[in-house]
Design brief:
CATH class of the largest domain: Alpha Beta
Strand content: 15-25%
Largest sheet: 11 strands, mixed
Bound molecules: calcium ion
Mean pLDDT: 88
Number of strands: 17
Number of domains: 3
Shape: globular
Low-confidence stretches: 1-27, 493-538
CATH architecture of the largest domain: 3-Layer(aba) Sandwich
Structural class: alpha/beta
Radius of gyration: 23 Å
CATH topology of the largest domain: Alkaline Phosphatase, subunit A
Number of helices: 15
Helix content: 25-40%
């Protein structure tokens, strides 16, 4: 309801009722700007949720969120790894324009911080009178940098600043605003990368405080404290990201207090842990919804749930996301610009505003959140963004919904850059590992699994994409496009798309049994499965 209609409601109420007080209060409540809760999972696959087709992992609360709201099938993350995806979400610019376009080693962390002149969605909402909180993982600036959350529009911050620190679910400290809160966990520190260049991870030797539990408590407390004013809660859980250090040393990167309903499954322990983490997060979503309802805020709160990038590979986690079909037939994993790496679940619930049980095929991406939130908060976003509000889609006004002609992504590994574009929501162009690599082309309408590179059949579309790529990005000294194609990139480009993504790794193991050695070894040694440039660190 707009302010004008709210006022009208008050006047009508005054005119026809004697019980005026309740009526005026109701209208005032209706005119209040909606609260916004954005729940961001970390490395959760497109199909890790029941409402997106998951059959092994139980997510009843998130499924209910979808049943009571809208589920998007064509929504994309900002990037295929953590920090840039979150930068896109926060600033409404794609990875060709935004500040943080990749994950940087700790020793180069100045490349991975927002700056004073960046404008985040939190800053805009703060300006519009919202109380703002980040609870969870940040990754866009350390405590002594201009990207620190309190300098970027958040009134309150609780959680992790550094992604490698965030790998550990039982850390020895977390941040509350600018202070370190020491926890009773005991942690064995592990240096990541050469001489710790990527930072210090850890494996708890004494597990007492589970950080997702602390985060939920803080999130609920923030909602409680700010129930009488509009608020924005960015709940950026680390679930189900692996503790990569534990995966490497112990073979299991899933960290959860108990395996719950999966305890008696016949699956390997890490797989049980992965499922248990997601179900743990699901219960947290349920707790947030319950608190909103208890406080009478339910009807005036837009709750969005999504994930920052696609599922991770077993080599870095110990658990097998292909067993769960976490990407549901989409090609690729985290770090890929194929659909499996960047297509994200997105669910939005806002009772009486969003029609319950809807599925939207609107093509959007993380950068659109800023324009959407700005529209809700009635605040003008900065100019020059890559951000289209999807509020019309949410409200069922499809005829008013603007569309992206182009979407754009880039991925920076240590030694190469991959780029992808999406034209008219249909044609996907991808070049891997070098600006000199030829574009692959996929028609997502006919081939959502991206199995058939049809570049040679559509030179006119390739020409259009090549032209667009010349202007799609601004150079960043911190995130240059890499020209030299690595040996890995050359091998990748030479490979034809395979059906690998549609098989589980157990299928591959079975193949090995049937045909000892050759097939499996080639696949596992394949750079497409374990490329040299993929560190798994700091992401
Ligand atoms: Ca992530």
């Amino acid at each position: 309801m707009t302010r004008r209609t709210a006022l009208t409601t008050v006047l009508i109420c005054v005119g026809i009722h004697t019980g005026m007080t309740a009526c005026v209060a109701r209208a005032a409540e209706d005119s209040r700007k909606p609260n916004i809760v954005f729940i961001l999972a970390d490395d959760l696959g497109y199909a890790d949720l029941g409402c997106y087709g998951q059959t092994k992992i139980r997510t009843p609360h998130i499924d209910r969120l979808a049943a009571e709201g809208m589920r998007f099938t064509r929504f994309y993350a900002g990037a295929s790894v953590c920090a840039p995806s979150r930068c896109v979400l926060m600033t409404g610019k794609h990875t060709g324009h935004c500040r943080v376009r990749g994950n940087a080693p700790l020793v180069e962390r100045a490349r991975q911080t927002l700056r004073r002149d960046d404008v985040t969605v939190a800053a805009l909402l703060q300006r519009a009178g919202y109380a703002t909180a980040l609870v969870g993982k940040w990754g866009l600036g350390m405590d002594d940098m201009p990207g620190q959350p309190l300098k970027q529009g958040f009134d309150f911050f609780f959680g992790y600043l550094d992604q490698v620190h965030a790998h550990n679910y039982f850390p020895d400290y977390v941040w509350r605003n600018t202070e370190k809160v020491m926890l009773p966990n005991e942690v064995r520190a592990i240096l990541c990368g050469k001489n710790g260049a990527w930072g210090t991870g850890g494996i708890a030797t004494r597990r007492v405080a589970y950080s997702p539990k602390l985060m939920l408590d803080e999130a609920l407390g923030f909602i409680q404290r700010n129930q009488s004013r509009p608020f924005f809660l960015y709940f950026a859980t680390t679930i189900p990201h692996a503790n990569n250090e534990a995966a490497k040393e112990l073979g299991n990167g899933a960290e959860v207090p108990d395996l719950g309903v999966y305890r008696d499954e016949s699956w390997p322990e890490p797989d049980k842990g992965y499922a248990a983490m997601i179900t743990y997060l699901d219960a947290q979503v349920g707790a947030i919804l319950t608190r909103l309802k208890q406080l009478g805020l339910d009807d005036n709160t837009l709750v969005i749930f999504s994930s920052d990038n696609g599922p991770e590979m077993r080599e870095f986690t110990g658990y097998d996301t292909t067993f769960f079909k976490s990407a549901r037939g989409l090609r690729g994993f985290k770090r890929d610009n194929y659909e499996g790496g960047i297509r994200a679940p997105l669910i939005a619930r806002w009772p009486d505003k969003i029609k319950a049980g809807c599925v939207s095929e609107h093509v959007g991406y993380f950068g659109d959140f800023l324009a959407t939130a700005s529209e809700l908060a009635e605040v003008a976003p900065p100019s020059g963004l890559d951000s289209i509000s999807f509020l019309p889609a949410l409200l069922g006004r499809r005829d008013q919904q603007k569309q992206h002609q182009w979407l754009y992504w880039e991925y920076h590994s240590g030694r190469a850059t991959s780029q992808a574009v999406l034209l008219d929501g249909r044609w996907k162009g991808i070049r891997n590992e070098s600006r000199a690599a030829p574009l692959e082309l996929y028609d997502l309408r006919a081939d959502v699994a991206e199995t058939q590179d049809i570049a040679s059949r559509h030179p006119e579309i390739i020409g259009k994409m090549e032209a667009h790529l010349k202007t799609a990005r601004e150079d960043s000294p911190n995130w240059p496009l890499r020209d030299a194609r690595s040996a890995v990139g050359a091998q990748r480009a030479a490979q034809q798309p395979s059906a690998r993504e549609h098989r589980t790794q157990r299928d591959l193991a079975a193949e090995k049994t049937e045909r000892p050695g050759r097939t499996l070894c080639r696949r596992l040694d394949s750079p497409r499965l374990l490329p040299l440039s993929r560190s798994g660190r700091g992401e």
